[in-house]
Write a structure and sequence with these properties.
about 525 residues, alpha+beta, seven-stranded mixed β-sheet, five-stranded parallel β-sheet
Length: about 525
């Protein structure tokens, strides 16, 4: 009979099937040949002690046990070509997983996406990196797959209560992701692998009768008697439907402005803002693994750190081991940073957003903008960064210790940020209270992570798109907008998710609620 076991082993043992089988045989006092197969169910790293261990949860199959590997299959999707239509605005994780769920339930998704498909986006990413040209509809934030496609594919979420995380992970595996994402404590796909997975999801939607339109931007929502009737797109065409999932992402400022203009209730939402810090990956490895050399059996080390400074949380966000920093502006005249890693996380540097929790009162200078006050606060910092960096996509940068000492860096070494850097004193980018909290916070970080506070680390500003600056309120039971029937605010842009997994779960939830009405 199969036996389930929790254990700690060395990295070398965890990485070698034969060594692991020998270790298990010794632990349960059987001959090595008595073990037919070992399936790893969960894996995590314990780096709290100098001798690093790997935590494993395994199932051991013996020679007398029946064992056959289980292939993860896609659900039995229905052909929905002639089914009732539901509009899905946005082809990020919320929109795509909403579309898949609609098909599974027998409804036809009409997905519209302002940006290009994953292949077409690459030319626009090259344009912003090399030529400093921002395409407002196709960039690191907008386009097929949303921001997640070109920002790492991290699948870890603390939102355990939001829904069935394993279901989303298994769907990703069925569409081509490595099965390791079902095992790892902090699963990750990688920016180099995600485009094909996203493309396969789109092709499945179309194969089953759904529709997907790229370079199609929502310009108006048709509403009659507080109920949606359809949408208008940029060429003036109307798409009729009485159910609309609005999954436009945290950077769709034109959508927030449209809702505000139409007197559709939205509200300002606090978010977090700061810088993106880049260290040599070897330095982070040394700090986290307490060793001079990481070795072949350990992955590039991540870090996660949280401090309370001046009554606010300051914390690492979207940490990318072995990754690069990317320009993520969505309009000309602004600078925005984010980070990503390839699947092997094999770049020479590690980067992380280091951000501070904002409060609604911080937006008071922009209170004339009402619900858009937080968005305008965000824009003002991004525009100031653009100006300080010479009105290009170069990024304001400063060495970390220099920043804490309020001193302009005389030199900035080459970083992973391709458009380039301009040496700037970061206090010019942020309001005074934020600069002060960042300085104090980095000093506290240095006390917790010996070696973190170094001039080898380069700060890039700003990291400003951590989450939506606007919430689109919805009924907690029906998930419809509190004012407009048939409008389903969804995912990060509406304020109900914080990453790929939680956004995908929210997309599925909205699809399920719509099905309750229509089927």
């Amino acid at each position: 009979m199969p036996k389930e076991l929790l254990l700690q082993v060395t990295p070398e043992t965890a990485a070698n099937d034969h060594l692991l089988q020998q270790y298990l045989a010794k632990q349960i006092k059987v001959a090595t040949n008595d073990i037919k197969h070992v399936t790893v169910l969960k894996r995590s790293i314990d780096a709290r002690q100098k001798a690093i261990k790997i935590n494993l949860k395994v199932t051991i199959y013996f020679q007398e046990d029946h064992y056959s590997p289980k292939k993860i299959e896609l659900p039995q999707y229905k052909n929905v070509e002639n089914a009732q239509e539901v509009i899905v605005v946005g082809a990020g994780p919320a929109g795509l997983f909403a579309a898949l769920q609609l098909i599974e339930l027998g409804l036809k998704p009409i997905v519209i996406e302002r940006g290009k498909d994953v292949r077409g986006r690459r030319r626009d990413l090259k344009a912003i990196n090399v030529n400093h040209i921002v395409n407002e509809d196709s960039n690191y934030c907008f386009g097929e797959g949303g921001a997640g496609t070109y920002s790492d594919g991290k699948l870890y979420t603390r939102s355990k209560k939001r829904g069935d995380i394993d279901r989303i992970l298994k769907l990703l595996v069925a569409f081509g992701a490595t099965p390791d994402i079902l095992v790892e404590a902090h699963p990750h796909i990688g920016t180099n692998k995600l485009p094909q997975i996203i493309q396969d999801i789109r092709e499945k939607i179309i194969e089953m009768g759904g529709k997907v339109f790229f370079e199609t931007r929502l310009t108006d929502i048709i509403i009659k008697n507080n109920e949606v009737q359809g949408i208008v797109i940029q060429n003036g065409d109307i798409i009729n439907a009485n159910k609309i999932i609005l999954a436009t992402g945290h950077s769709a400022r034109d959508i927030f402005e449209l809702l505000d203009k139409k007197k559709i209730f939205i509200e300002a939402k606090p978010f977090a803002l700061g810088v993106r810090a880049e260290h040599p990956q070897s330095l982070i490895d040394t700090i986290q693994y307490s060793c001079d050399y990481r070795g072949a059996h350990l992955p590039p080390a991540p870090y996660s750190i949280v401090k309370q400074v001046g009554g606010r949380g300051m914390y690492s966000f979207c940490m990318c081991p072995g990754g690069v920093i990317a320009p993520c502006a969505t309009q000309p005249g602004e600078v925005v940073t984010n980070g990503w890693s390839p699947s092997k996380r094999d770049q020479a540097t590690a980067n992380s957003g280091i951000v501070i929790e904002l409060k609604l009162e911080d937006f008071k200078p922009f209170e004339k903008f009402g619900a858009l006050a937080g968005m305008e606060f965000q824009k003002s910092i991004e525009q100031k960064a653009w100006y300080l960096a010479g009105s290009t996509q170069k990024v304001p940068a400063q060495r970390l210790v220099d920043f804490t000492q309020n001193k302009i860096s005389s030199t900035i070494p080459k970083t992973s940020y391709v458009p380039g850097t301009t040496s700037v004193e970061m206090g010019q980018v942020f309001p005074g209270f934020l600069s002060q909290i960042l300085r104090e916070g980095f000093s506290e970080f240095g006390k917790s992570m010996k070696g973190y506070l170094t001039n080898e680390a380069i700060l890039h500003a700003p990291e400003s798109r951590t989450s939506s600056p606007v919430r689109i309120p919805r009924d907690s039971e029906t998930l419809e907008h509190v004012q407009i029937k048939g409008l389903y605010p969804c995912g990060e842009g509406a304020g109900y998710a914080g990453g790929i997994i939680s956004a995908a779960i929210d997309g599925e939830k909205c699809a399920l609620k719509i099905a309750e009405h229509l089927l």
